[in-house]
Write a structure and sequence with these properties.
Layout (H helix, E strand, L loop, with lengths): L11 E3 L2 E5 L5 H8 L2 H4 L13 H10 L5 E8 L5 E13 L2 E8 L8 H12 L6 E7 L3 H9 L3 E10 L4 E11 L2
Parallel strand pairs: 5-6
Antiparallel strand pairs: 1-2, 2-3, 3-4, 4-5, 6-8, 7-8
Length: 179
């Protein structure tokens, strides 16, 4: 079974921010922010130091017709905070199931950007999910609050390998049923 998704991603309003498909011109700010060790260490998939071309490759994958992950720039143009303040994505896991992931540039931490982005993406439900999962490193309680404030329910503890740290880290797993 193929989970490929060939539809164009919608632009989604998220308060003063817009969630819009990534574009090649986002590479500069994405590289700047994801090169920050603080950002890389809060994710499992961003290496540190960031390899040359990693951002461009991610953007190209996010624009591919056969992608399984839809990624949106959290665009702060209307809030006058810049074209890109973070990224949020949905990765297809199975029919009706996806995993949400996000990061926000440190200058915007604790400002409500992530909460607004998650709320807007869940409300829009562009992949027609019945269930959305999320994993958060246990050392990142602010990200866990973003999820619980958006009705995600704690499922249990696990662990995941963190590229930036070079070892497995304990995580909390969450789920949101949309049925």
């Amino acid at each position: 079974m193929s989970l490929a998704y060939t539809q164009r991603q919608p632009v989604i309003a998220a308060g003063l921010y817009d969630l819009r498909p990534l574009r090649p011109s986002d590479a500069g700010l994405m590289t700047l922010y994801t090169s920050d060790l603080r950002v890389a260490q809060t994710t499992s998939s961003i290496a540190h130091p960031l390899p040359t071309g990693a951002t461009e490759a991610f953007i190209a994958r996010s624009m591919a017709e056969d992608r399984i992950e839809d990624a949106w720039a959290i665009d702060g143009t209307r809030a006058e905070t810049g074209e890109l303040v973070g990224v949020i994505s949905l990765t297809r896991l199975d029919v009706g199931q996806s995993e949400i992931g996000y990061w926000v540039a440190p200058i915007f931490w604790n400002s409500g950007v992530a909460s607004a982005a998650v709320a807007a993406l869940v409300a829009a439900n562009p992949q027609n999910c019945r269930t959305i999962f999320a994993t958060v490193q246990q050392g990142n309680p602010a990200s866990a609050r973003v999820l619980t404030n958006n009705r995600f329910v704690y499922l249990g503890d696990a662990e995941t390998y963190c590229l930036a740290r070079g070892y497995a880290v304990p995580t909390w797993t969450y789920c949101l049923k949309l049925d």
